[in-house]
Amino acid sequence: MSFHRRFHRETPPASIHPLKAIAILVAALVLILSGNTAKAASLIRDPDIEHALGRVAAPILSAAGLGGNVRVLVVNDRSLNAFVVDNNHIFIHLGMLLRMNTPEMFQAVVAHEAAHITNGHIARRITNMGNAQTAAGLGLALAAAAAAATGNANVGLGLAIGSSASAERRFLAHSRAEEVAADQSGVRYMSHAGVDTQGAVDVHEIFRGQEALNTSRQDPYMRSHPLTRDRIRTMKAYTSAHADKAKPASPETIYWYARARGKLAAFTLSPKWTLGRLDDSPSRDIRLMREAAARHRLSQSSAALKAINGAIALRPEDAFYYELKGQILLENRRFSEAVTAYRKAVAIEPRNALLLSSLGHALLAADRPREALKPLEQSRGRDFRNALMLRDLGAAYARTGNNGMAALAAAERYALQGRLKDAGVLAKRASGLLPNGSRGWRRAEDILRESERASKK
C-alpha cells in the first residue's frame, strides 16, 4: 500500500543492535504489534489524524492522571490490536480503528492501555522478560522509549534490535491478572470521564469466539489481551456498576472521532468506497475532506481542490485542512501554491512538528532550500523521530553547501533506522566537518560512539 507524501509511513529498521533492559522490554511489547517477528511494522503519521485522536483520548488520559503526556499513534496494520511500549505512547492498529464504530469503543481501548501505564505493568514486564537478549523492535517506538527513560531526545537515535521466538513466548505469557486489572482501571477512568462504559464491552465483543481459533488465525489483540467468556462477563459487571455515570458522547467527540476515521478510510480504502459513502459523514466539512482525499487519489486534482476549498470555507482557521490542500497541490507539482497552503497551516498551528516538516518539504520542492532549513530544524526540535524530515533536512543542508550538517542529518536518519554502520560512517564525516564542540559536532560524536559500540558486539 502506498500513501501520499504526508500521510506517510515510518518503517522500522531491519538491522540488529542489542540493547539493555528498557529496550528489550519495549521491543518485546512491540511483538504484539504484528504477531509475526518477520513482519515489518510501520506508523501512519498524519497531523490531522493525530490531533483528532488526541482530542478524543484527552478526557480518558486526564482521568487516568496522564494529562497531555501520552500520544496516540496509528500502526499501519489491518489486523486488530493496540498496545503500549512506554509511558508516553499508545499504539492502535489501523484495522482496530476502522472496526471501532463509536468514540466510546476507541476511548475504552485508550483507557485499557492507559491503565497498563498507570498500574506499572510496563516496569514489571522488564522483570518478566528474564534473560531474554533479543526481541522485535519498532524503531520510532524504541527511540521514544529511550528518550522517555533518559530525558534526552538524542539518546534514542539508532535504537533497534532483532527478535527471537523465545523472547516472544516469554512476553506473551504475561499475566492475565494484569489484563483484568487494566479492564477494571480502564472502566473506572471511563466512568470518571463521563464516558459510556458500554464501549468497553463492545470492544470485547469484537473478539468473541476467537479463543476457539488456532493462535495463527487469531488477531494479535487476542493473543496479547487474553479473552475468555468469564472475562467478558466480568467486564459487563464492571460496566453495569458505572452505568449511572454515563453520558452521551459530546458533539465535539463525535466530530473528531469521525474525522480521524474518515481520513484514515479515505486514504486506505478504495476511493470508490469512500465516494459511495460520503453521506455517512456527520458534518459537511468532513464530507468534503473525505471527497478531497478520494478525488486526489483518483488524480482528479480540480475536483479535489474544489472539495478541500469547500471544507476550508466552512472552517477557515483549521490548519489541517490547509495541510491537505498543500499536499494536493504539492503532489500535482504546484509547488509555490503548496508552500502558501502549508505556511497558512503553520501560522495557525506553529508548534506542530508534522506541519513544520511538510512546509520544509514544500520549500525544498520549490527549490528554496535555504528557507526550508528553518521549519525543518524546528520540526526536528519537536520530534526528531521523523525519518522523512531528516531526509529533507539533509537535502536542504547539502543544497546550501553545509556538508557537515548534511552528513549529520543523514547519520541521524540511518541511526533511527538501525543502520548503525552506515550512520557511523556519516557521523565520522560530520564530526570532521563541523566545528569542534558545536552542538552538531556533539550529536555526531554521540552517533559515532554508538556505532563503534555496536560494531564490537
Helix count, DSSP H or I runs of 4 or more residues: 23
Mean of pLDDT? 80
Q: Supply the helix-strand structural class.
A: mainly alpha
CATH superfamily of the domain at 8-245: Metalloproteases ("zincins"), catalytic domain
Report Rg: 22 Å
The second-level CATH architecture of the domain at 8-245 is 2-Layer Sandwich
| End-to-end CA span | 36 Å
Order of helices and strands: EHEHEEEHHHHHHHHHHHHHHHHHHHHH
Strand content: under 5%
Helix content: 55-70%
Unreliable residue stretches: 1-5, 9-40, 126-173
Neighbour order of strands in the largest sheet: 1-2-3-5-4
Provide structural commentary:
This protein has 457 residues and is mainly alpha-helical. Among the domains are: 8-245, Zincin-like, CATH 3.30.2010; 270-316, no CATH class. It has 23 helices and five strands. The chain has helices spanning 21-34, 47-63, 94-99, 103-118, 121-128, 139-150, 165-172, 176-192, 198-206, 220-224, 229-241, 251-268, 271-275, 284-297, 301-314, 319-330, 335-348, 353-365, 369-382, 387-399, 403-416, 420-433, 439-455; strands at residues 8-10, 43-45, 71-75, 82-84, 89-93. A five-stranded mixed sheet has the order 1-2-3-5-4, sandwiched between helices. Helix 4 (103-118) packs across helix 8. The protein is globular and about 65 Å long. The chain starts with 7 loop residues before the first strand and ends with a helix.
